[in-house]
Automatic annotation (TrEMBL), chain A:
Annotated ranges, domain Oxidoreductase molybdopterin-binding: 35-179
Region (Disordered): 1-22
Pfam families to which the protein is assigned, alphabetical: Oxidored_molyb (PF00174)
Protein's recorded name: Sulfite oxidase-like oxidoreductase
Organism: Nonomuraea composti
UniProt lineage: Bacteria, Bacillati, Actinomycetota, Actinomycetes, Streptosporangiales
UniProtKB/TrEMBL annotation, chain B:
InterPro entries: DUF6510
Protein known as: Hydrogenase maturation nickel metallochaperone HypA
Pfam families: DUF6510
Length: 199, 87
């Protein structure tokens, strides 16, 4: 028997260059929650984009599922320091949802069933950088991971990838969200370790 | 499955900030007006931060984020805290 155990409860490092500074790899999928898990029946689910000119674009579940789907494989990085490589999702690119949206707004405030919010520049949602997903790892997205549908914005810390997403409000001024008003960084780039306000 | 802890989970983290035991103070919820001991709140977390919700309406009453060398305490969901002190 080897005297060197292979990282029993240890933190797995990676030299592929895909893991941002200060992060360690996990194989499981930790669940972090800031409140009770919302249960949203599909016949009452909707997703809406509200523009700064007070125009609303709305999709029922049926309409959302009829949109062209993509199957992104991405690495995700949680601000609590775990990273997970090659996660596989299925959903709709924000580019598709924004196709008919006319806006000059620079900021987006994402809001969720259950009241969660998170903010980011609109450009971080576009050009193949973000999706509304409804399947993970070949299965329907479980409620504890944000099902029926969540946002994923893999290039930012995962608190920006709002679970139970309900809509996006476009704004001319930045409006900090749930964690961004409680000490976490306004932008949250894992490669620059923007964890807390002031980082 | 119980997703949350009770408000006693706030005792240690809040003792870093306050000289009194805040979990025995009486807080009033901004959203529904329910008053009760901080220890009776429903606490989610601890990561990315502690989120204490009202047992009556589930709105956020208190949030506490602990970073390296800094803590952020948000009490906007709390009308007031009644703290018993020696005379």
């Amino acid at each position: 028997m080897s005297i060197i155990s292979r990282g029993f409860r240890g933190k797995r490092r990676d030299d592929s260059g895909r893991v941002p500074p200060g992060q360690y790899l996990v194989d499981d999928f930790p669940v972090l929650s800031a409140g009770p898990t919302p249960r949203v029946p599909l016949d009452r689910w909707e997703f809406a984009i509200d523009t700064e000119a007070e125009q609303t674009h709305r999709w029922s579940w049926e309409e959302f599922m009829a949109l062209p789907a993509e199957t992104p494989t991405v690495d995700i990085h949680c601000v609590t320091k775990w990273s997970k490589l090659d996660t596989t999702w299925e959903g709709v690119s924000l580019d598709v949802l924004f196709e008919d949206v006319e806006t000059a707004a620079e900021y987006a405030l994402v809001h969720s069933y259950g009241g969660y919010t998170t903010n980011l520049p609109l450009e971080d949602l576009l050009d193949g950088k973000a999706w509304i997903v409804h399947r993970f790892d070949g299965e329907e997205l479980a409620p504890q991971h944000g099902g029926p549908a969540r946002l994923i914005v893999p290039h930012l810390y995962f608190w920006k990838s709002a679970k139970w997403v309900r809509g996006i409000r476009l704004l001319n001024e930045d409006w900090p969200g749930f964690w961004e008003t409680a000490g976490y960084h306004n932008y949250g780039d894992p490669w620059r370790e923007q964890r807390y306000e002031g980082d | 499955m119980t997703e949350h802890l009770d408000g006693n989970a706030l005792a240690g983290p809040l003792s870093e900030i306050f000289a009194v035991d805040v979990t025995s103070a009486t807080g009033r919820c901004v959203s529904c007006g329910l008053a009760g001991p901080v220890a009776s709140l429903r606490v989610y977390g601890p990561d990315p931060g502690l989120v204490a919700r009202c047992p009556g309406c589930e709105e956020v009453v208190l949030r506490l984020v602990r970073g390296p060398g800094t803590a952020w305490l948000d009490l906007r969901g709390t009308v007031s805290l009644r703290v018993n002190l020696p005379e």
